[in-house]
Specification:
single chain; 4 helices; transmembrane helix; membrane
């Protein structure tokens, strides 16, 4: 029979891996869109609806796993290491940095076109999706920071 501590460790490990895979997948899907926006300035990029739905589904999965962990699973360090803690903090900042760069590129790229915006509903939906992805990157970076802090702190004696 598994102890509560072991169940917690298994649940936490599963959720952090799920969050990491979701972030990696989002980066893989979003980077080509980001690259097209940057390399084709002045041109409106058409993103297939299937890609937008995939991004939405993965961002919602990331949010679900993050909030599940926040509500029911305690962060416990599997080991203690200041070096690993620093690496995780660095990765957390990089994860959010990419989200910020994505948001600012899209926002400032399309801001000058405000006189030629698509219909309001379309703009609101795309804006909401961008904010959801940005918030998802933020939540993931917070999760990595929590793990980094747990790994850095001295073990309880």
């Amino acid at each position: 029979m598994m102890t509560d501590r072991r169940k917690n460790a298994l649940a936490y490990g599963s959720l952090i891996v799920l969050q990491s895979l979701a972030v990696a997948f989002l980066l893989r899907v979003i980077f080509p869109i980001f690259y097209a926006v940057v390399t084709h300035l002045g041109e409106r990029q058409q993103v297939p609806v299937s890609t937008l739905l995939t991004i939405l589904a993965v961002a919602l999965l990331l949010q679900a796993s993050y909030w599940t962990r926040m509500r029911w699973v305690e962060v416990r360090a599997p080991f203690h290491s200041i070096f690993v803690s620093h690496l995780l903090s660095f990765a957390a900042r990089l994860a959010f940095l990419f989200g910020g760069v994505l948001f600012s590129t899209i926002f400032f790229r399309h801001l000058p076109e405000s006189n030629t915006l698509p219909p309001l509903g379309h703009t609101v939906l795309q804006g909401a999706l961008i904010l959801l992805v940005l918030f998802s990157f933020f939540c993931y970076s917070v999760e990595l920071e929590r793990l980094a802090k747990a790994i850095e702190d001295a073990p309880d004696t």
